[in-house]
Amino acid sequence: MPRAKRYFDSGLIWHITHRCHKKEFLLKFTRDKKRYLAWLYQAKKRYGLIILNYMVTSNHIHLLVVNKTECLRNVIPRSIQLIAGRTGQEFNQRKNRKGAFWEDRYHVTVVDSDDHLNQCMTYIDMNMVRAGVITHPKEWVYCGYSELLNNKKRYTILAVQSLLQLFSLKNLDDLVEHRQQAVESAISRNQYLVREAKWTESVAVGRPSFLQRIKKEGGNKSRGRRIEKEGNFFILREENLGFLTNLILPSKKNSKT
Questions:
Q1: 3-state SS record for 90-133
Q2: pLDDT (tens digit, 9 = 90+) per residue, 146-197?
């Protein structure tokens, strides 16, 4: 299968999902989830990765990130290589294990701003509720929702100022209230209790004009992509190869440790 090429263009929001090799529960231990978060923090410090939300489960991760400057378009791939590579290396060394820790490919979906961003964040927050592990996102400490609610002071991962700008909010208290309302609304309506492939398998989710822009900027890579309506959402989908051509590969050195 050919390796797709994609640039992380300036100003776009990216939902990244990455699974452990063969969907194994390689992140089931607390220390490994904490090490993933430690390297996520290092990616923020080293490369300026702008993180809007995150979720570390026992066998996969979600990251919601944004590129704000054209010259920083390599920040996201370099960050994923650092985080995935070091997490896998440390696990294999400790367990005297050989072989891949992660699936070769991680998937990227472009997310529109406004309510699409809000709903994508809530979908990420509800991951472990959806899995039946917890009854409320506040019970899972390895996620952005927990960081917000606990008002963490040191080693913070979330780009709070970027979130305030994107949601047109004034301060942290407003942001916390905003996210709490979104989560409580989802719980009261039993929303996001079923996996929604649009957030993890499509090329992009957003308004038709936004999707037309993404398709146009994709040039030849957009051949075969089509805009579809799915419920109240519009998505940009691969026509023939599904989401597989939309994946980006970390280097062999970092993906197999």
A1: HHHHHHCCCCECECCCEEEEEECCCHHHHHHHHHHHCHHHHCCC
A2: 999 998 888 999 999 999 999 999 999 999 999 999 999 999 999 999 999 9
For residue 69, give Cα distances in angstroms to 11, 28, 72, 246. 7, 35, 5, 22
Distances (CA, A) of 7 to 33, 72, 104, 110, 118: 28, 10, 18, 12, 24
The tokens describing 149, both together, are: 């609610």
Q: What is the DSSP letter of 21?
A: G
For the chain, domains (ranges, CATH) are: 13-255 (3.30.70.1290)
Phi/psi of residue 124, nearest 5 degrees: -65, -45
pLDDT tens for residues 37-83?
Answer: 999 999 999 999 999 999 999 999 999 999 876 555 689 999 999 99
78, with CB counted inside 10 A (0-12, 13-18, 19+), is: middle
| Cα distances (Å, whole numbers) of residue 74 to 9, 57, 66, 215 | 9, 26, 12, 21
HSE-up (13 A, CA, CB side) for residue 224 = 13
Provide the pairing of β-strand 106-111 with 247-248: antiparallel
| pTM confidence score | 0.88
Contacts of 93 (CB under 8 A, 6+ apart): none
**Closest to 120 (Cα-Cα) out of 9, 50, 40, 204:** 204
